[in-house]
Design goal:
Largest sheet: 5 strands, parallel
Structural class: alpha/beta
Helix content: 40-55%
Number of helices: 21
Radius of gyration: 38 Å
Strand content: 5-15%
Shape: globular
Distance between the termini: 107 Å
Strand order of the largest sheet: 5-8-11-4-12
Oligomer: single chain
Number of strands: 12
């Protein structure tokens, strides 16, 4: 048989391969050493070469970085005129003659009243205008004179005539017009010839953004002085009251670090503290002592006008500040020298011999948590509204004892329930409907007397202090000293219509006439006439 070489070669090789491999077995591959991973070789950097550089790809920085304080100045910038707005014809102006005449003053209630040029300059120096108040929308600064503003004007006139002191705290919802009411009060005091002092933002006193240093008082107490902040306040006082203070001279002896002339004017005294922060605190004390001293007509420059002192955002000084003492513990705001001066005036500890007004407004946009202040504000507001209801109950009870039972025993329609605290208004309705129910069922006088004797006027829950919360004794001492409380509520529909008509005559409210339907719609959307929301919804909206 012939065998080819190819077949012979296949016969010799196949047995050798089959003997070296086991069928259906993987033990040989598992027992083998694992393959080594290749080491990662870093990529070589690309060789530097020429790239295409076009002029449009170059970013040239030409703007300079903002200087120190430039951003803060831009944030606080206030624009008081809009040249694109129309001049409102027949706009009444807040003048000295108007403020001093009670009849003319009351006749302006519910109207938009403009500020004079001289008054605007003084208020600008005192930092009375705020950036978010919408002054930039209109031709000139003007504001609605509300019922609260008329009452403040009458209180200022009364304090001047009687040389009495009005001490008030104004609170309310955000955008309700607290700061504008404070601004109007400052303008009225300035036009009356008063010396005006204003702390534009109490938060700047307590937010630990200005240098401070401890000082020992004569009674051994440690207070903390902020020289630069006090110097800025003195600068504002000198700029706003220059015409008044130029005619006043110092009449007391003061222990100051520098010698003073015996007949130096109060303007020059204040300017010394404004120019040198190291002298600011002792000069502030000397100025406050001079301006609150009794008048001495027999001396040249010895007359002293009434004093108006205002502070916006007062709730920031009714709590612990952001400053720390040497033991790294928070300092109470009442231990800061300038805040202590204001609280002494607000509580009546520092007397105003020639009369005046101390007015503080709370903050709605930057309001901190101040439970003690909130309690006293709620209690004072509720008590103020509960007194007429108590008087009405007493009158009805006396009438049932001496008169015949008829339908005239329930004159509760005289009470303005819309201005009351909601819980007090609910009690007034309870009294009203209870009497009406007895009248409809022909109840006897004895039953009516029993109902009136059982009915007690209760304070709202917010006016009752929670014993489990710690009470701030410093704040309680100030608020329990007889400070009057005023709540700024929303506008009435008549006041809202007056404001919207002013917007329309300024050319800022366009598209539809001011009708009852439009006023009602905007008044409702503004949360019941909150003037800040009303302005946003009418002239502040942008598409």
């Amino acid at each position: 048989m012939s065998i080819c070489l190819r077949c012979l070669k296949r016969a010799l090789i196949l047995p050798e391969l089959s003997s070296s491999r086991a069928a259906f077995s993987t033990s040989a591959s598992l027992s083998a050493n694992p393959t080594k991973k290749k080491a990662v070789v870093p990529k070589t950097l690309a060789k530097a070469g020429r790239t295409l550089r076009l002029a449009k790809n170059k970013r040239v920085v030409t703007a300079r970085p903002p200087a120190a304080g430039e951003r803060k100045a831009l944030r606080k910038k206030v624009v008081l005129s809009n040249t694109n707005a129309l001049e409102v014809p027949g706009l009444k102006e807040l003048s000295t003659e108007t403020v001093r005449d009670g009849a003319k003053w009351r006749a302006l209630e519910g109207q938009v009243v403009g500020f004079g040029t001289e008054t605007v300059d003084a208020l600008r120096c005192l930092e009375g205008f705020k950036p978010g108040q919408g002054w930039h929308l209109f031709r000139r600064p003007a504001a609605l004179l509300r019922k609260d503003g008329v009452e403040m004007g009458e209180a200022i006139q009364r304090a001047k005539e009687e040389k009495s002191v009005e001490r008030r705290v104004v609170f309310g919802d955000k955008g309700s017009g607290k700061s504008v009411l404070l601004l109007q009060s400052m303008a009225m005091a300035y036009l009356q010839g008063w010396s005006v002092i204003h702390f534009s933002e109490a938060r700047d006193i307590t937010n630990a953004q200005t240098p401070y240093e401890p000082v020992q008082t004569t009674d051994g107490q440690t207070i903390y002085v902020q020289p630069r902040y006090i110097a800025s306040i003195l600068s504002n006082i000198a700029a706003a009251n220059r015409g008044l203070l130029n005619d006043l001279r110092i009449t007391q002896q003061h222990n100051l670090p520098i010698p003073l002339q015996s007949n130096i004017s109060l303007t020059r005294l204040v300017e010394l503290g404004a120019n040198d922060p190291q002298l600011a605190w002792p000069i502030w004390q000397a100025f406050l002592s001079e301006i609150t001293a009794p008048s001495q007509p027999e001396k040249q420059g010895g007359l002293r006008p009434p004093v108006f002192v205002g502070m916006d955002g007062v709730d920031h000084i009714m709590r612990m500040s952001a400053y720390l003492d040497t033991d790294m513990k928070p300092i109470h705001a009442h231990d800061l020298a300038i805040a202590q001066s204001f609280t002494a005036l607000l509580s009546g500890k520092t007397q105003l011999a020639n009369g005046g007004m101390i007015m503080a407004a709370t903050s709605g946009s930057t309001r901190p948590s101040v439970p003690t202040l909130d309690h006293f504000l709620a209690r004072a507001h509720a008590t103020l509204h509960a007194e007429p209801l108590k008087a009405m109950r007493k009158t009805l009870l006396e009438q049932t004892k001496v008169s015949v039972y008829d339908s005239d025993l329930a004159p509760l329609g005289q009470l303005n329930m819309s201005a009351m605290h909601p819980e007090v208004a609910a009690q007034a309705l309870e009294l009203k409907y209870g009497i009406h129910h007895l009248q409809e069922n022909d109840a006897s006088l004895e039953k009516l007397q029993g109902f009136l004797q059982r009915f007690k006027v209760r304070l709202p829950k917010a006016a009752v202090w929670d014993d489990y919360l710690p009470k701030d004794g410093n704040v309680a001492a100030v608020m329990e000293s007889g400070v009057r409380v005023t709540k700024v509520a929303g506008l009435s529909k008549d006041e809202a219509r007056s404001v919207m008509e002013y917007y329309a005559r300024s050319g800022m409210l366009r598209g539809s006439p001011v009708t009852e339907g439009l006023v009602g719609e905007k008044w409702t959307l503004a949360g019941g006439g909150i003037i800040g929301e009303l302005e946003k919804g009418t002239v502040g909206v942008r598409f």
